[in-house]
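$ run holo --ligand "4'-deoxy-4'-aminopyridoxal-5'-phosphate" --emit tokens
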Amino acid sequence: MKPFHIDTIRADFPILSTQVHNKPLVYLDNGATTQKPKQVIQAITDYYSNMNSNVHRGVHHLSQISTDAFEVTRRKVQAFIHAAHDYEIIITKGTTESINMVSNCYGKAFVNEGDEIIITAMEHHSNIVPWQMLCEEKKAVLKVIPMLENGELDLDAYHELLSERTKLVTFNYVSNALGTINPVKEMIVEAHRYGAVVLVDAAQAIQHIAIDVQDLDVDFLVFSGHKMYGPTGVGVLYGREDLLNAMPPYQGGGDMIKEVTLEKTTYNELPFKFEAGTPNIEAGICLAHAIDYISEIGLDAIRAHEEELVEYATAELSKIEGMRFIGTAKAKSSVVSFLIDGTHPYDVGVLLDKMGIAVRTGHHCAQPIMDFYGIPGTIRASFALYNSKEDVDALVKGVTRAANMLR
Ligand code: PMP
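-- output --
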């Protein structure tokens, strides 16, 4: 484990020493996507310079080394989330595709008329819409765990929603809009008591919190590479072997087959059954380098650093007149969402951008949360391992200036 030196870490991320509108970049939009360390950027260049070829196909040298490297990623992901088997790791395009895979494939095989699916009121749209589509198609019933004012889930309501009719329960580990950390283990135990399977959306957790899928006893877990310092266009679906085996394939095409005749096709074994066609090879291979990067620093050190930033940012921002925090859950990760009386979040975001500060404003692809609070959106600062107290100071100064200009 490397010692946690913020300056050394920042030096790994070339973009952090660039300027925006002639101001040093302060990047606080990590919930949308994280920046990439030079180790990952170098791996991308190396791939195209020395390795480029298709995977799982050719007998030639290049194809073998790219296939080996792609499979190294699968095993790194397996180790990173403590999966029992490497073939339980399906390499996808990202969280959205992983969720759609489960809603389509698990849904096709196991969800019938009258069955119930439970989601929460604090999901990203990508963990709402696929379930609405499935329920419409199958005449199943979508139930929603409501939220409390502080941005936590109403767990009493959850217990009441569960029944023998519940087929699948899904929720995010960490809310992208509020930063709430949900009590996933407890929620999984409850769902399993009724025989329901559980999908956890770990898109905002995988880069902040150490995850052990066997300890959690989770059935499906999904996340994206680009939010964990890796490339875009790659993500993961972890699924329990027996469930994956029982599910039909997602797409038909090359790689997912064992044998094709013009009359009939037999499907490949896991994980290839769910990986039709040429994957994003470069991103797949380079995800391993992002995992190495995180592992060398260690998620415990990363989490401690980010908790300190959230605490500091909350304390400093609360000194601004008219500050209203949205989401004040006891357990929070790396996100501070807020509004300032008398200003529109969008206007604040535009002014911050002019100062070189990147935040996200709006509904953060979680419109039901904004409806719950009766607000148009929030200003969201989301932190990563390379953010510093100086970044927070710049944010506080920038927000104070923006508020003074707008009021
Ligand atoms: N779920 C959550 C909680 C997210 O934050 C995001 C990305 N903002 C997604 C799902 C979707 O991820 P992607 O766009 O990488 O598929």
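-- notes --
The mean pLDDT is 97.
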